[in-house]
Amino acid sequence: MKRNIVKIDEEKCNGCGLCVPACAEGAIQIINGKAKLIADNLCDGLGACLGDCPQDAITIEQREADYFDEQAVTAPQLTVKAPVHGGGCPSAQALKLSPPKNSVAAKTETGPSQLGNWPVQLKLVPPSAPFLAGADLLLAADCVPFAYPDFHQKYLAGKTLLIGCPKLDDVEAYVKKLTVILSQNNIQRLTVVRMEVPCCTGLVSLAQQALAASGKEIPFETVIIGIKGEVK
Asked: Which of 30, 82, 132, 182 could connect to 214 by a Cys-Cys bridge, CB 3.0–4.6 Å?
């Protein structure tokens, strides 16, 4: 039969995996670094996954396809796992890193903590928190402080910190909360510090969406940190 069904543009897909949990039917999986529709009969064609793709790689098309099988959806599914190396989302690849020893690059300035607010998790911070008033806001991926050794001194000093993970957390809820924060507080600047892995682009996307929805003109900057600790 001819019906609506998901179409994935592999040229645009970066393998971030945000579409996988967005598909309640389990029709999409990451295979060899790309999102794949694993079976036509698992896709209901409603497109709940569309809004979760930061690359706009998912659309709805009309074509010949098997009927949507609700019983197949509720049955236990065979999970296709991407290989640990050479496929899947880069953020989930297992890598052994070798920090430099006894070198200038290995030496970092030590100093006191520059953390000036608590809590820091975006989902826990109330939009009316007093530390948000007139803040120089730093939105950081929660992996960043572990990858970048001088995070406190170079990026956190003098800023109000919010952290989150665009892959594991509720991005839609983050957009809504950040929109309220930007709308209700006289935010002076918004800096996003993210990791280089593709799925972390979602942090920049949600910040841009919130900024647009707030209607505020706030200076915006993005910083990218490599998994080996370098600024890209």
From this structure: 182
